[in-house]
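Journal club prep, notes for RB
We'll compare a predicted complex against what the paper describes. Inputs for the magnesium ion case:
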Amino acid sequence: MSVQRIARTATVIASVAYLFSLVPGFRAGPDTSTVWDVGVYAAVPLLAAVSCFARGLRGRRDRAAWLSIGAGLTSYAAGTLVFNAVLLPAGDPPYPSVADGLWLALYPCTIIAVGILVRTRMSRGFGAAIWLDSLVAGLGLASLFASFVFPSLADGTTSSDAEIVVNFAYPVLDLALVITAVGAVTMLGAWRDRTWLLLGAGFLAYAFADSWYLVQLADETYRPGSLVDFGYLAAATLVALAGRDRSDEAPEAARFEPQSPSFAVPGAFALLAIGVLTAHTHPGGMAVAVVLAVGALTAAWIRTALTVREVVALSDSRRQARTDALTGLPNRRAFYEVLEVAEKRPAGTAPFVASIVLADLDRFQEINNAVGHQLGDQLLCKVSQRFAALVPGGGMIARLGGDEFALFVPGLRAAQAAELSRTLLGALDDPFWIKDLSLHLTASIGITELGAGTQISHALAKADLAMYRAKAAHTGCEIYDDGRDGDAWDRLSIGEDLREALYGGQGLTVEFQPICQLPELTPTGVEALVRWTHPVRGRVRPDQFLPLAEKAGLMSAVTRTVLDQSLDEARRLRDRGWELSVSVNLSASDLLDDNLLQIVELALAERDLPGRALRIEITESLLVDSGAGAVERLFQLRALGVDLAVDDYGTGYSCLAYLHDLPVSYLKVDRSFVNRMLEDERTALIVASTIEMAHGLGLRVVAEGLETPEQQEWLSAHGCDLVQGFLLSKPVPPDQLYPWLAERARAVSSTIPVYP
Ligand code: C2E
Ligand code: MG
Ligand code: MG
């Protein structure tokens, strides 16, 4: 038996025993007994505190909240001990006393706890609003009392200020607590949640006992060891019982559908109680106080009701944002939220299994086009109704968009999900009647099982892959399988990892490869080449990940990173007196990017670099394929002073004449030609004539992939202007580039290179 359970049981037994002790004739001796009114009376809140501490220490969930309540109850128990064991026996205890301080500490602790409990249950953000509002209501009330009511109260009575403050502190804080709890329950729609009901009942019990006590005090009918005292014990016991929690076991799937606020009953009750109380505590001449108290309470009541209305309206719009307008099913966002909640399950909870079932209608686009969108929509609604009727309890179905539906079913293994899928497919067997049309639909379903360790955020994509396999093979339903879908998954996941690398800060780096002028091999520039080291796979080649980046819409982010790092390097080179141009490769989507020009211009200006510090390389095929917009962009770049180079020349089908109309100044002969030119006469002929024709058009020629001194000699003899290749240097990180350049400069001459 756990500590919490023992403490909880003991709390209940002790408070019930205390209740029995109040039966007339039960207690031997005088009315007030040390055993009952000191021992048992302090033991109940103390045991309740132990139970809350144990609850807090047991799991991570709600830990702070229960520790806070535990601390509050401990302080409360200490107050009881001090008062009943020390102050009372000493005779005529002061009011207020230390005990009041200890008792009152229960309130902030509990209000904080409710705030925490609400925050962890609401999806992002709402918790703070409601608990702040409750706090504002409580504090507002208290200050109102302090500034208006207390002086006038003090005028007409012999009570001290402190006495009045403390007198009011109890009911005001009780009220704040009840408002907070009712607000929380309303917000969470947790009217059937045992934890909240017990907590709320406990708070009400405190409010009730305090009111009753103060009434008795004013009537001078209170005596220790009466039923009022049991009220406090009942309150502590209810709070301890609220700590019994079984909700850890299942992930909470979007269970916070807000209910309409019903503040009337508790609000009216609180109002009545405080009104009566105020009248009773300070009889005679206190009409102003009563009016003010009731007025302040009304204000707080309205404020809280307003807050709740606002928040409910807000959560209503959130609900709408999570609902698919056409079918009324949860939408993609709602589905992701449920997955997120499942992913954030606290560690160490019971093993978790669930399946995602993804259904996509076959040929729906064709049907939609044939029958028209309106009827297509009706069809989707009917499909969603048939599917929704088959979702097992605890599961959810969402429309992800178009003709795609997804089910999330906790507790379901893949094999069971396959059975469910066949039922779903069976639900489509009967034709759909729309107007006078009878339509037959089929669907393809992909399944993925989530177990411990599965990254849930990837699950939907995996179900998607399985669904595509089902669609391609016309099998109806397939379960994701690493063996069969692994390759496709790899490609997808690399894309995701790249996004992470780009936006998560671990980033991409750039290496630089020198470009030198023939015949002396004077360095005139460097080419920036992007590098990515994947956390698991290690280095991924640019030709592997760049196409993925292009597909995933990440290319402009890649280009920006490369451009920034390249120009940073250009700046550093220039600061050392090296006026080398840095070549940056652009891709297809860069040329379509309206912001490109502005980005380049800004990047140069930020570093106070002239346009010719940058060279842009565009592959030949890209030049040929891109439209007029791209060509215009090239002219604009050229106008900034940026040089343009045609990369991988010879691999596409462009002709030199075409290049003549473009603002290009460099031609980079592809390395496949340089590689073969000494072995293959035809290749040599192509390279030689390319150099000649390019010169005729006013272009300078760069030979890529220079690997041997023989190639260098040949190129030099045929008038090639520049070379780049492993013979000179591999692409290297900046810290290796500088020694290489210094070495090269010493070898060629003592003159400082300038931009060509
Ligand atoms: P590229 O622009 O033609 O770059 C030259 C490629 O040839 C580089 O490969 C370089 O490492 C390699 N190389 C240089 N000298 C030699 C040599 O002597 N022998 C051999 N066998 N190879 C040599 P890398 O770095 O793998 O880049 C491949 C391609 O990826 C680049 O071809 C370029 O088209 C693209 N790329 C690289 N970085 C970027 C970038 O930042 N943005 C864009 N859009 N594309 C990039
Ligand atoms: Mg290049
Ligand atoms: Mg190239």
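Talking point for the session: Residues 84 and 169 are 21 Å apart (CA to CA).
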